[in-house]
Fold these 2 entries.
Entry 1:
Amino acid sequence: MGMPKVDYSLYLVTDSTPAILGNRQLTHVVEEALRGGVTVVQLREKTADTADMISTARELHGITQKYGVPLLINDRVDVALAVGCEGVHIGQDDMELSVARKLLGPDAIIGVTVSSIEEALRACKGGADYLGIGTVYATPTKTNTKDIIGTAGVREILGKIAEARFDIPTVCIGGINESNLQRIIFQSGAARKGLDGVALVSAIMAAPDPEGAASELFKLVKSPPAFRVDMGPADVVQRQVAQAPSIIQALTPNVEQVVQNFAANVALAIGASPIMAGYGEEAPDLCKLGGALVINMGSVDPAGLANYLKALRAYNQAGRPVMFDPVGAGATSIRREAVKTIMTNGYLDVIKGNEGEIRTVFGDSQEQQRGVDSSSTLDESRKARLVLALAAREKNVVVMTGKTDFVSDGESVFAIDNGHEYLGLVTGTGCTLGTAISAAIASRKANRLTAVIAAILHFEIAAELAAERPEVRGPGTFLPAFLDELYRIRQATASSELICDIQEK
Ligand code: 3NM
Ligand code: MG
């Protein structure tokens, strides 16, 4: 007791099931984790006998004290009392907070698991010392969790706590690992309240080197994510189109591009340097070249998926932008799973898809299809709202392509009516638009939303101009003309001849 202010940044929850601990000793693994930088330890034993649990807790407490780190006991107020450790963590089905407080006294640390706004406010009012918010993502470590709330759910809870003026430390839990930790902290943060840390089990307890894992995770919690960079001032869209040529200079490695040749030609026409790379192991080197990454979900076999994840991780770590094209997202259950896996394993600066793909990305990542009817197509205002909601939830930029394209950064939505029907009559224009977008965000010279809009306008105005050419009589003759116009717009210095059909919704 009498601990100074607790640092919640890296909160370790133990697990002694063989699948996680193997044949190693719990106390040994925890001590290694403490050496790596864990700041809070929770002993969580769901099946141990009381005597065994007390003896483990006693031994652990001796160790945590050496590191000046609090030891909390999951659920078992009696064990905490017997050992005299710093406190407990209680779930919604455990002992009531008020009873635990009476038994443990005012100085004990009592944390509460919450998965809704109501539970959070009740715990705050009841005098909890911190909140464990979850479940962020489904995890094999605990399968009987009540609700998967995602980062959007965590952010809602944090927002309400701040609104009610509770100043309480918070961590989140569930499926957090080295790859997604920074994105989870970034996306969970509400305007006036962010997380104080993350709680995890398997990322440390199941790691072959718990000290190394903890030390890496600690570094990630303590440093701002590399992808969170200031992209410069927003500019008016019209001017940005004229500037697009200077934005679009960067290298754009594509992972698994379905229509590689066409995409590469478009990239060259707009001034980007494409590399069509499908092997994730190359990504750490490729991202040093300074471009953006396109994850074009062409194939979703395990090898393909592993490549996407390796590339995503490398680009996130290097702070380089990532454009995700969830090709055919809703077509099969494997594809839906792949979308989920990609989205939970890193940060995606831009997500671009058609209506069906964007609806799958929105609904599937959190089973919150809220009011989105899956059978019919949405009307314009619902499309706009969907794109806005997804971008707000993911804290990124979302593009829904179609006759009218919708683009949002989570704060405003734009509808773009440029383009030509020929774009729909040749293969790969959707994927290729992704390439153009990635080139635009690669240089980070403009505000991200503006850069994305500029790329779409560049692409679609080129299609309009190409279709109007006298030699163009159909999709076949359109293609070379389209490449020419992409190139010509890039060369153009004045934007006055370009008519952008864009409106804020
Ligand atoms: N509590 P991992 S999820 C212990 O949602 C626990 O309340 C959860 O394990 C909750 O870090 C969870 O391996 C397990 O995903 C988290
Ligand atoms: Mg419990």
Entry 2:
Amino acid sequence: SSQARIVVLGGGAAGMTMAARLRDLLDGARITIVEPSEIHHYQPGWTLVAAGVYSVGEVQRRNERYIPRGVEWVRSAVAAIDPESQRVETTDGDRLDYDFLVVATGLHLDYEAIEGLRREDIGRPGLTSLYASAEAARDAYEQIHAFGEHGGVARFTIPSTPIKCAGAPIKATFIADDLLRTAGQRAGADFHYHTGSDTLFSVQRFDHMVRDLYAERGVSVNDGGALLAVDVDARQAQFQTRDGGRETVDYDYLHVTPPMRAHDFVREAGLAVEDGPLAAGGWLAVDDRTLQHTDYPNIFGAGDVVATAIGKTASTVRSHGAVMPDNLVDVIQDREPSRQFDGYTSCPLITEVGKAALVEFDYSLEEVPTFAFLDQGAPSWMWWRLKVHMIKPLYFNMLRGRYLR
Ligand code: FAD
């Protein structure tokens, strides 16, 4: 059984971490990573690119530095999975047979689900999205300054789907607000945060905190709904209204957080959740504690792709890394999965350039602070410095299977 063939789909935060941990746990297993990109993107750093703190180069590294020794790297994308014949097909037409499969392909940013919008439009005058890429985050930084010179209406959107790092749209708003304040241009700008949800954050304390800070800084919260359409040339955006209608408004600066879902091949392979609130996104159907697929015991999931109620952060991957590979080894060795994921989700919630609150919670939606002797929920320069100086090295160590939670 140590000769088991394990194929890991995706070599991002989760794929790399799971492969590194599996390599350490198993002697002689044949592990393959399928990952098309030469570059690893440190996405949690993109908010800091948008704040002008990190350069684009500081959030990119070459994948070849992180592929674990002894692990084979197939530089291709998954096109299809056949869970019955235990085979993966790549976009290059190669076929890979597996005994055990780890799905870690992250999620798809569905800009095209917004009428009139294409991903390539991000970066056109007035239209930004720090979710699109490091370059787009840099562009958001440049465009907020261009916007500040003339002033006008700035709008920040939230989709109705689950999203990775649920705090990032809030951070994007606070960063833009702060950059304009520093430039002495905030008075000429009218800020709107568009959400269809009754809450701004799933943990009550932070919901209240963000609401209070928005009120203090003059960010109006439009309890409308999701962004439905954009006319990029006319700089108009159309939102869902509370009563199910549509409302069209002008903008000078629009920050889009796109709808998100799993890649199509998950659903096409019959591996997606089919019922409940997560069904529309085609997320990978796993047990939310063991991360084992609900129909195929030889398939596991990790990272953003899995259909858990919360937990689309890189910090979550630290916990997945301490659970999923051990459970896979249990299954290889004919035991029941022994480890349980608790829903751990975390992010430093930037409230201004130079300050952040350190948010950590689990399935209970209660705080689970690492530094319980300090008040992590109060915005402080300390958590900002943790974010800027410490989390990045921690992340890149995680990719090598270290500092798991
Ligand atoms: P990814 O890291 O996105 O990796 C997916 C990989 O799959 C990629 O390498 C991709 O190339 C590959 N792939 C895609 N399609 C295929 C295919 N067909 N075949 C093979 N491979 C494929 N997390 C935090 O913890 N804290 C934060 O402060 C934070 N801030 C964030 C801010 C922003 C703006 C963004 C975008 C994310 C942030 N995150 C944060 C979230 C974090 O980056 C993700 O949760 C994490 O990267 C998830 O890991 P993953 O491996 O599931 O997905």
